[in-house]
Write a structure and sequence with these properties.
434 Repressor (Amino-terminal Domain); about 90 residues
């Protein structure tokens, strides 16, 4: 049982375990990058040359983009290709 006295879990009940700081997964990384650029799903899909469904699937971690699409996505979202591929490989 977790108690508030335990320093590792202090405050976890107040903010929720899922809200504790952690590295974003690939899907969150893509969504955050798109939102920072103030682009809609449709705008990104159009610029990458894929369907809006593909963008939704990538952002919801249902599937990963193929290499060619990942490269195009990185260009549109101005993400470093090598670092993004490393995140995608996790």
């Amino acid at each position: 049982m977790v108690s508030d006295a335990d320093p590792i879990f202090a405050g976890a009940h107040r903010i929720g375990i899922s809200e504790l700081a952690r590295e974003p997964n690939f899907a969150q990384h893509l969504r955050n990058a798109r939102m920072r650029r103030n682009l809609s799903v449709a705008e990104v899909a159009d610029q990458v040359g894929v369907s809006t469904a593909s963008i939704y699937f990538w952002e919801n971690d249902r599937v990963r983009p193929r290499d060619a699409n990942l490269s195009a996505l990185c260009k549109v979202l101005k993400l470093p290709i090598r670092a993004t591929r490393e995140i995608a490989a996790r």
